[in-house]
Amino acid sequence: MISVVILGAGNVATHLFKALNDAKKTSVIQCFNRKIDALNSYKNNVDITDDLNQLKEADIYILAVSDDAIASLSQQLPFENRLVVHTSGSVSVYDLDKKHKRGVLYPLQTFSKEVKMDFKNVPICIETVDKKSYPLLKELAVSIGSPTKRVNSDQRKVLHLAAVFVNNFTNQLYRIGHEITESEGAEFDLLKPLILESAKKIQDVSPYMAQTGPAKRNDKKTINKHLKILKNDQHKAIYKLLTTSIQHTHGSKKL
Amino acid sequence: MISVVILGAGNVATHLFKALNDAKKTSVIQCFNRKIDALNSYKNNVDITDDLNQLKEADIYILAVSDDAIASLSQQLPFENRLVVHTSGSVSVYDLDKKHKRGVLYPLQTFSKEVKMDFKNVPICIETVDKKSYPLLKELAVSIGSPTKRVNSDQRKVLHLAAVFVNNFTNQLYRIGHEITESEGAEFDLLKPLILESAKKIQDVSPYMAQTGPAKRNDKKTINKHLKILKNDQHKAIYKLLTTSIQHTHGSKKL
Fold first, then answer.
1. Which residues form the Pyrroline-5-carboxylate reductase catalytic N-terminal domain (chains A, B) (predicted)?
2. N or C: lower Cβ tally within 10 Å for chain B?
3. What phi and psi, each to the nearest 5 degrees, are found at residue A35?
4. What is the count of residue pairs from A and B with beta carbons less than 8 Å apart?
């Protein structure tokens, strides 16, 4: 049985708590948060505390806190030589205090507090400073059903960056689609099956092969029609830049 | 029984043929294409022709051809006063020759020739010049299980434009995610569950509510880290522009 203490009460902490608490091979023995009220919903299931000096001894301490809090929290932990990991995509593993055995468990997924997440669909990228810590972190991730991948710092950082492109930026394109359609009283809902299909297609086909549309075909007539419809200068700039990017990728236009 | 002639042999024509051929209330009585070879796989199921003068009488003629071919093909049809529709998102319904009853059946979906499409997931936007043609087109769309929506020209055009944002441009962001990860030997496959989850989230939550990440939080530290990692100037420009767009939407930064 792997014993775990979770520090933090945000989305990642909450989802990890539920998954690790349900798993057979792991036991969450304590949850810590500076504001103990945020842990109130757990208090019947696990010991909770807001005092670092009350932290129990465990196999793994998971710091699921905001990026800026990781370094100082790791310094304040009143013990050393135990395995302490953070869950951030962009913070260095060396930001953790060197008195600990250090690692990262980076879950590559978007979490909503309300929606239950099946960890089968949450790849966990594992990084460790010393090799010996790796098997235990892998066992933890496997225990909740996650696919795992050992990564180095550079790989974790580009995965985090790529996640911004495929999640945050993609979501902003959905938002622009929403604004454009509503402006003419058309229904954004009509686009939802297309949005889902575009994401499903990529599960089997490379994004290169999946591309279609006026930019790829270099269909200037349609591109000009679209630029005329767009009233918002920022939307226009995004249209032009992504059209050029597609044409660059597919060689339909020299840059 | 609604009788249909399909003109064209591309993705949309192929998928419409299969769906209409399977539907109980519709009968595809003929397929036309300039290059008859492209219709060879249908010839055991339906009459095929490459001669406009051999076209049979039908309730609806569907011109599922490239945007540029619609106007001239509609002129060349050797009959008048019959219902002729095209399937394009961006071509005017008035590009069809005025000797016909004119309409548009615009399927709002991305089709791949290999992948079977369930028309339950293909909203069909219907536009007609005269009101009387509408019920028949609606009946046709309903017969293959599609959700339908009556739209005007402006609405159809913004839906097509929005489709470029949520499908083609989104796919290019997936492509950039692919390039960035591969450049460090990280696996693009790790991003696939995130891509799917981002699209699923939008089925129930507005894109505005679904947004997360460094741009929305105005997390300058992470944004600067990401800009440092990006080597490609075009990727950098896309990162900056979409970050600004998110900040504009969420009021985290004044423009």
1. 4-86
2. C
3. -100, 105
4. 305
Which among A180, A193, A202 has CB closest to B174? A202
Supply the range of the domain harboring residue A180: 154-198
The span from the CA of B117 to the CA of B111, in Å, is 7
Closest to A155 (Cβ–Cβ): which among B155, B156, B186? B186
Question: What is the ipTM for the molecules in this complex?
Answer: 0.94
pLDDT of residue B130: 92
**Which tens digits make up the pLDDT trace of B159-184?**
999 999 999 999 999 999 999 999 99
A177: nearest Cα among B199, B120, B195: B199
Do A119 and A172 fall within a single domain? no
CATH code of the domain in which B69 resides = 3.40.50.720
Burial A179-196 (b: 16+ CB within 10 A, else e): bbbeebebebebbbbbbb
Tens digits of residue pLDDT in A176-230 = 999 999 999 999 999 999 999 999 999 999 999 999 999 999 999 999 999 999 9
Question: In B, which residues are within 8 Å of A123 by CB distance?
Answer: 190, 193
Residues of chain A in contact with residue B156, where contact means CB-CB under 8 angstroms, are 186
The number of distinct structural domains making up chain B is 3
Same domain, A8 and A105: yes
In a domain, B206, yes or no: no
